[in-house]
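Handout, section 4.2: multi-component inputs.
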Amino acid sequence: EVQLVESGGGLVKPGGSLRLSCAGSGFSFSNAWMSWVRQAPGKGLEWVGRFKSKADGGTTDYAAPVRGRFTISRDDSKDTVYLQMNSLKTEDTAVYYCTTGHCDSTSCHWDDAFDVWGQGALVTVSS
Amino acid sequence: QSALSQPPSASGSPGQSVTISCTGTSSDIGGYNYVSWYQQHPGKAPKLMIYEVSKRPSGVPYRFSGSKSGNAASLTVSGLQAEDEADYHCSSYAGSNIVIFGGGTKLTVL
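Output:
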């Protein structure tokens, strides 16, 4: 079964740090581009950032609101991707999902069609 | 990049069709055929329903269809069923390795 399982959510004070983990199974993790998407309470989805596979360059990209504060990393030996969140703000409060793209018979849509999702990890930033 | 624009709510009776719009710009929806739609039930993770504007992943009912015209995309749900009641989110590739989402539309089956 293809699966993503997040861990590491919790309550943190403004200005603090937190690291989320996401373990994958049932698919070729090392070939996958791994993304993080968040959802503030009662709001829509927001793309946070992505780590390309090492074979495709192993680079990262981030949404403007988190650039410079959040860092995505991966350990392919553990089939795990991480989201390090620093200088947290109250507006970062959200459920954070890790996700990866949809592959059909012709190609994989790493950046435009997220097919496998974790269960979500709640991050609450509050004093 | 600003979020894509979706109506906050939509509704229809069982058996009817309903269309949800998603409006962007020439830098996102209008510039790429990489629009996706997600269904999300309360407390659950999103589920991919449509990708590349109009393609359905395996297992998604034919009742769900997508289209695009200019800077706007649409999701149509035909033959509405009770289980279709959920939030629907659109997304688009926006160039420069960036993805943007809409604010979501709550679909109510009357």
